């Protein structure tokens, strides 16, 4: 029911395999706008973006947030992610590559499952754009 | 510095619920756009609620009601997305029959008044499986460059 097998051998400090996306193009932003129904013109209309004082359209923060969520979902299985929360700290521009990394920062072992906390960050060109955390529910190790 | 823009009289406002069926194609396209392989167990990507949120806007416009952003008077020129959180009690799945509730929870200002914040809370409940998602989003207006 939860798809791929869960990671069983998990320890605090473990790094999730980093994920790279992009470089971001206007086409990717148009696709993400259609997929998420977020058609805020700051993401898809260069004329609007310039009138708002930007050099060009900017990426949806939720694109980077979604990639952070993807990193955890691919590691643990989408159905095991119990919380994803993030703060948007900088803007991603057209041409930027998004790099998402994650690290296990706490494991709380209960009677029937383990609750694993993962800290996540998305960055572009060394600047943090999203700082996030996820909670994942994993079965007890064998 | 610009004057504050959010309509703070909407604090505490609960919007009329929206019901919708989660479309399998929408889940797949959302996953593909993030570069995810089709998910074997049918659980939507963990950030999929953002699509559900936007779909409630579409429904509200069709019903002739203001959207959340219209209620709080967001100005797209100065709008930033501050924070987002989804507590996923259960994953969203294609075919779910959702009722989505929304409440304008709070407004506040940054210490020097350069930013103002609006907090919106939403819940998605499936007709059969019960509560799935508790979502919280913070919008920001830039009031100074």
Gist of the model:
The complex is a heterodimer of chains A (142) and B (145). With 142 residues, chain A is an alpha+beta fold.
Describe this structure in words.
In chain A, 23% of the residues lie in helices and 37% in strands. Chain A has 142 residues and is of the alpha+beta class. The longest helix of chain A has 16 residues, at 61-76. Chain A starts with 14 loop residues before the first strand and ends with a strand. The mean pLDDT of chain A is 93. By secondary structure, chain B is an alpha+beta fold. Chain B has one domain (8-142): Hotdog Thioesterase (Thiol Ester Dehydrase, Chain A, Roll), CATH 3.10.129.10. Helices cover 20% and strands 39% of the residues of chain B. Chain B has a five-stranded antiparallel beta sheet. In chain B, a hairpin with a 3-residue loop joins strand 4 (115-126) and strand 5. The longest helix of chain B is centred in the middle third of the chain and has 14 residues, at 49-62. The A-B interface holds A 1-4, 21, 28, 31-32, 34-38, 40-42, 51-53, 61-63, 65-67, 69-70, 72-74, 77-79, 81-88, 134 and B 26, 29-30, 32-36, 39-41, 43-47, 50-51, 54-55, 57-58, 76-89, 91, 145.
